[in-house]
UniProtKB/TrEMBL annotation:
Keywords in alphabetical order: Glycosidase, Hydrolase, Signal
Alphabetized InterPro entries for the sequence: Beta-gal/glucu_dom_sf, Galactose-bd-like_sf, GH, GH2_Domain-Containing, Glyco_hydro_2, Glyco_hydro_2_cat, Glyco_hydro_2_N, Ig-like_fold
Domain Glycoside hydrolase family 2 catalytic per the UniProt entry, residue ranges: 313-609
Protein name: Beta galactosidase jelly roll domain-containing protein
Keyword Hydrolase: yes
Amino acid sequence: MKKRIFLLLCLFISVKMYAQDRLITNIGARKALSLNGTWQYIVDPYETGFYDYRYKELDEKNPDAYWNTDIPKNKTEKKEHGYIDKYSLQVPGDWNHQKPEFLYYEGTVWYRKTFDFHPADGATKYYLYFGAVNYRADVYLNGKKLGMHIGGFTPFNFAIPTSLLKEKGNYLVVKVDNKRGADEVPTLNTDWWNYGGITRDVKLVEVPPTFIQDYVIQLKKPEPGKAPSASPEVEGWVKLNNVKAGELINISIPELKFKKQIAATGQITKVSFNLPKLQLWSPEHPKLYQVSVSAGVDKIEDKIGFRTIEAFGKQVLLNGKPVFMRGICIHGEIPLDVRRAVGPDDAKQLLNQAHELGCNMVRLAHYPHDEAMTRMADSLGILVWSEIPVYWTINFASPAVLDKAKAQLKEMITRDHNRASIIIWSVGNETPISPTRTDFMHKLIIRAKELDQTRMISAALEVNYGSMKDMNIVDDPLGAFVDLVAFNEYLGWYGGLPDQCRKTNWSTPYNKPLFISETGGGAKGGFHADSLTRYSEEYQEWYFKEQVAMLKRMPDSFVGITPWVLNDFRSPKRNNPVYQEGWNRKGLYDDKGTKKKAFYIMQAWYKEIENKFS
Ligand code: GCB
């Protein structure tokens, strides 16, 4: 018994020790030293820098640990690790595209960066921030472990004890491990490339002793079915780190001549106010306002759009008006360079491609994309579906897996809860029906609703094929809990030929809007043949022609679609040596950025609907 209590205590201490500090949001607006650039690395498939030869985690001070200096104290000291320029990688960026030997690598790589730093006065606090590391990151500064994070697509930060920072030669080491695991999120099996590495920005963030950690400044959830009034109400909160009693918080929106001062009521202070003469955000008018929040000496600026969104009966109302979502699914990848997308230029490129197709919406599959993407969507006026990688058959029976999914859900929502573009949080994709899975997914939905009451929650649900002749029914029990009943269908690709669409109809027993979150077929760009030939552009074109004809017969509750997929993307599951060569070829653009014939079918239909709705 004593032993058990001791073990529990150890577990608690280690979890506490390595838990990340609460996320600091709007990181781009903070005072920070960028730690992007060249980092040296060691490839360590056996994790020799982490475990001793008995496979026990090395003691923090052990000179063989790869987080400790690689410089021998004298000519006699043995060193079996070292960081040199010959072995270096660029951060941010996946390792797979940077060196040919990394293309298929899955395992541990140690990253090391040294930097000089002049700390400000003693009261200032420092955090080390990572936009994303795939999948597990163990972070060490000057030989001390700052923390550990798992989840490959969401941000995290660790507080740095000020005494740890030096003026010269700070030694920062990150053990990055992208091994897939049965009890991870995502799990072993996905249809995308497992790009490893420090894939997003790294920053040393400087904040005053009391600082604005996070805030929500968004329009209140609308009265069911109602458009926002002429002076709509903002409802939100400001979260101060190390709050002092009575600390004053100021919020201002200069363009609206709006100013408000409130005294902090605790760590989190609720705010609500009306904004007369507000121009609402929408895809047609993506109006963003400069918003500033300050408390004590801390001040932070953001660009925020204001709109309402809701599922109302069988419709989706944006600012109180029905909207049809002309979408496309996007992977966070730049096919031309065969790498993960990162930063505003990549975001612009991908969203402009979607714009050309005639989209007013994108589904960011199947994990949270770079923050630059959702910010770009805000400024270009593109609605967003944002998703966590609860994909296919993860271990739904495991409470630990549920916790991992919840952690990613929280990080996704926290990072982006001020983005007007985001209208849907998705808790997963094509998860197989069982009571255990439905319970797991329901818990995620409950959590998402606790974190954000103003957006729709959805997931790509399962379809009941063929229980009725010519009618497919979306009656997945998870439909009872989502706001938007979304499903993926591949009629004419994974089942039969495209003309099967002619006699197929769709329905759902749920009195909710219906959305197609995927449909698509593969074609190798530039390969032409008759329409019965798989992988020809003509087959894919036929597929989309039949789909569009079917979509025109969808029930009134049909509110939008995000076909699969914008660009061809890398996938180790796609091994046809002639047409795929490790690529999923369902892109409407090929891997060189050339439009396939099917692109024009969707584009023409989107134009038609746009005219109908405007
Ligand atoms: C799906 C998945 C998507 C795959 C796609 C395909 O249903 O959601 O991740 O890539 O099908 O191409 O099979």
